Amino acid sequence: MFSIISPSQIILNAIIFNQVKLTYTMKISKNMQNALNNQIVLESNASNSYLAMASWCEITGYEGGSSFFYAQSDEERSHMIKIVHYLNNLGVTVVIPATKLPASSFKSLESILKIALNSEQTVTSAIHKMVEIAQKDKDYPTYAFLEWFVNEQVEEETKFENLIKKFELIGRDKIAINEIDKILAVSVEPPASNTAA
Ligand code: FEO
After folding, report:
1. Among the atoms of ligand 1, which is closest to the Cα of residue 75?
2. Sign of torsion, CA 25 28 30 33?
3. What angle do CA 51, 118, 191 make, to 5 degrees?
4. pLDDT for 190
5. Which domains does the chain have, with CATH numbers?
6. Average pLDDT, stretch 65-84?
7. Rounded Cα gap, residues 93 and 108, in angstroms
8. Distance 20 CA to ligand 1 centre (A)
């Protein structure tokens, strides 16, 4: 049996829904909102930076590095969108950042991986600071939301550390770098379905 909802009931439901959002918006502190908006900036910059690295690899002839960093760029964008959805679902206005011009030329494949690790470490620190804010605010929903990011950063840092170690293990001559490029090709992760709220 279908129940017909009257227009006035629809309006009432919309009002209640928006009130729930408004109530929660008041629970998420301004500090936390700013930190999450800032994280959108970091994820967006990381996505752009990895895109520039992918492009440099592609033009330099590192096919594995190119595939790897195009995928990394997409992944960072998905992280950014995850936060956009989270804030939007709480009724918090999201500030979509302007694009920061990333570096476009690099010294070597090894230097790119080191820059990437450094970038991940910066992101990890920012996420840990947000966890501290969530704890201080007793903002348990945001604390739970951030757990995924905490685990993701452990994986990301480990991944880059292991790739950088390959230069010590295999070497830095042309054959070794070609081998490491092949390792990058098989390190490409399938797109994660983590863009949902
Ligand atoms: Fe989304 Fe790898 O930081």
Report:
1. 1
2. negative
3. 40
4. 77
5. 29-186 (1.20.1260.10)
6. 98
7. 40
8. 31
Give the integer Cα–Cα distance in Å for 167 and 85.
Answer: 39
pLDDT per position as a tens digit, 147-196: 999 999 999 999 999 999 999 999 999 999 999 999 999 999 877 654 44
Q: Are 117 and 157 in contact (CB under 8 A)?
A: yes
C-alpha 78 – ligand 1 centre gap (Å): 9
More confident: 172 or 27:
172
Distance 192 CA to ligand 1 centre (A): 13
Q: Tokens in use for 27?
A: 């629970």
Q: Please list every protein residue whose CB sits less than 6 Å from any atom of ligand 1.
A: 43, 46, 76, 79, 120, 123, 156
Give the pLDDT confidence score for residue 6 in this predicted structure: 65
Q: What is the Cα Rg of the chain in Å?
A: 21
> Does 81 have pLDDT greater than 50?
yes
Which atom from ligand 1 is nearest to the alpha carbon of 152? 2
Q: Is 117 helix (H, G, I), strand (E, B) or coil?
A: helix
With vertex at residue 82, the alpha carbon angle to CA 81 and CA 85, rounded to the nearest 5 degrees, is: 80
Which of ligand 1's atoms lies nearest the C-alpha of 124?
Answer: 3
Q: What is the pLDDT of residues 53-68, one digit of tens each?
A: 999 999 999 999 999 9
